[in-house]
Amino acid sequence: MIKTKAYAAQSATTPLAPFDIERRRPRADDVQIEILWCGVCHSDLHTARNEWKNTMYPSVPGHEIVGRVVAVGPQVGSFKVGDLAAVGCLIDSCGHCASCREGLENYCDNGWVGTYNGPSTGGENTYGGYSQTIVVKESFVLRIRHDAAQLAAVAPLLCAGITTYSPLRHWGAGPGKTVGIVGLGGLGHMGVKIARAMGAEVVLFTSSPGKVDDGLRLGAHRVCVSSDGNRMAQFAGKLDLIVDTVAASHSLDALLALLARDGTLVLVGAPENPHPSPSPFSLIFRRRQLAGSLIGGVPETQEMLDFCAEHRIVSDIETIPMDYINTAYERMLRSDVKYRFVIDMSSLR
Ligand code: NAP
Ligand code: ZN
Predict the structure, then answer these.
(1) What tens digit of pLDDT does each residue of 75-102 get?
(2) CA pair distance 178, 221, nearest whole angstrom
(3) How far, in Å, from the CA of 239 to the mean position of ligand 2?
(4) Which of 72, 6, 69 is nearest to 34 (CA)?
(5) SS3 letters for 50-87?
(6) Which of 124, 188, 239, 320 is deepest in the core (most CB within 10 A)?
(7) pLDDT digits over 174-190, tens only?
(8) Which of 37, 49, 15 is nearest to 87 (CA)?
(9) Where does residue 237 rank: exposed (0-12), middle (13-18), buried (19+ CB within 10 A)?
(10) What phi, psi does 319 have (nearest 5°)?
(11) Whose CA is nearest to atom 29 of ligand 1?
């Protein structure tokens, strides 16, 4: 086994602190990656604090992982020692169900294995990217085509990027479509950048009046502060697709009212407490749809990384040392992050 320094929460109420874990020695088809940077997702916080009521402790979060390959098993064909490599939210799945055969491992019928907190169906714990090194099956390792100098800002693409890219692609964001992004945090700012690059007309809805200028700078054509009822009314019935990234429970009726006929509101935010059920009339009129979307499969994650490299898209980040993580969580809860914390893992060595 490989002794590895990490940061873990030991319970829902204890702060994250240093903790030693062990990684398996690379098997024939494994890649071992020295982790250089790891993004901080709001899901890390939900998990560390058991907000989804399924956390296994000790909990080592982190699923926006980029680093350098330091060892490969003899059957590994597409990575060699010294390559840059990335790992997102998934490290395994059954491989044979209909979803896995379509490259939708994130919807594996038999339960995929999360980079942290183990199999989605329950089972042995897994430890994520708040650690020095990780060993992952080659088929779940992603290739990075951005400049090495941008590595820290690439890390958030592995969750925030794919989680917004996937529904934007699935529901056809592009020229002639008006797309709303709700919430300008880690996911939301990637959603704005990616929807703009796909050619859609982009409207950002934010609860923070102080983020209007940033929303425009990041690529939104228009920004609407959601507490401004008159401004919201200007967008009623105008949007084809809305991606809701908000990390807290809120009413969906005001967002559904923005959709055009046959428009879709896609929930990606996963708050601790559910949203109140929307009124059926919000859906019945204009035949609107309410949907959800979960991260993305391996092929689509690679497609997203390549799309972002081609369009020169990275995340806007604030880099932090590992021991800042508990403060970072408090700031994330106050929506005080522009727009993703990324941990410099050299601070753990
Ligand atoms: P984040 O950086 O904290 O951003 C969330 C944004 O939501 C905030 O910046 C804020 O934007 C808005 N917001 C409005 N009211 C809020 C409130 N009371 N509390 C918190 N945020 C509020 O979080 P994130 O990392 O982007 O993640 C967003 C959500 O998506 C989380 O629930 C996370 O677990 C979930 N997630 C889901 C998937 C998936 O596969 N579906 C994947 C990753 C993450 P404004 O200031 O602009 O209003
Ligand atoms: Zn995430």
Answers:
(1) 999 999 999 999 999 999 999 999 999 9
(2) 10
(3) 26
(4) 69
(5) CCCCCCCCCECCCCCEEEEEEEECCCCCCCCCCCEEEE
(6) 188
(7) 999 999 999 999 999 99
(8) 37
(9) middle
(10) -85, 145
(11) 269
